[in-house]
Structure formats: structure tokens, C-alpha cells
Amino acid sequence: MPRSVHKALQGAVLLCIDDNQDVLECERAFLETFGYTVLTAPSGSKGLELASIHSVDVVIVDYFMPEMNGQEFAIEMRRLKPQAPIIMLSGAVDVPEQALKLVDAFVAKDHLSSQLLPVIAQLHECGVNPTPSYDT
User: Fold this and answer.
1) Using 50, 70 and 90 to split pLDDT, how confident is the model at 7?
2) In which domain, by residue range, is 24 found?
3) What order of strands is seen across the sheet that includes strand 58-62?
4) What's 9's DSSP letter?
5) Phi, psi (degrees; rounded to nearest 5) at 33
6) What CATH number should be reported for the domain holding residue 75?
7) CA angle (80 as vertex; 76, 82 as ends), nearest 5
8) What is the pTM of this model?
9) ∠ Cα 79 133 30 (to 5°)
């Protein structure tokens, strides 16, 4: 997607949460090239800590993580900041329906490069609690 499409979103703060440090660094590098400010956390609990002290425009969380999975994180995030849009990622296709109901969008990890930016833009433009979309 052309960088010009995302100029209005430059400076938006994204919180990325994944237990895989390599994935986190790739997400950060990719998103920062489009002008986003990217906070990263290696676990759901660290992500909640960051969300409690920073203003976050969009949260991107992996589903499969030890200690606190993406569903458990989404429940706590909704309590902490009910208005924050949440995008759930997963490399697997067997994410429970109840987990998907807690988030605003789902993006399969094998579609990150083509779908993540448009979904972020859509959620950020829609603002508060947009209608969930599940891209697979």
C-alpha cells in the first residue's frame, strides 16, 4: 500500500504484543517505515502495563502466547481501555470463536504484509469500537 495512503495515521501509537521476539522486531520495523510509533511487549501482562501508561491508538496481539494468550489479554484490555481497537494475529487457523468476538479484527500471520496496514487504517479511521472484521 502506498505510504501516502497512511499519511493521516503517521504518529499513531501501535502496541504490538508477541512472545516471539523476531516477529515483534519485524512488526516494529515494518510499521515504523509507515510513520507509526510502535511499542512492543513480549507478553500480555507487559502489554497491559504499557497500555496503562501510554495512549495507544491500536493494539496488535498474537493469539498463541504462554501465560496469557490473546483472548485473555483482550478480556483484560477491554477492562483497562474499552475503546482501544484490538487486532488479533495468529499463524494458526483454529482460533476459538469466543476469542474472535473480543477483538475488532483478525489477520492471519501469513497475510500480515498485505492485510495489516489496511486493517489498522480502517480501525483507526472508524474510531470507537468498529464492527469486527475477520480477514482470513
Assistant:
1) low
2) 3-135
3) 37-41, 13-17, 58-62, 86-90, 105-108, 133-135
4) G
5) -65, -20
6) 3.40.50.2300
7) 95
8) 0.86
9) 85
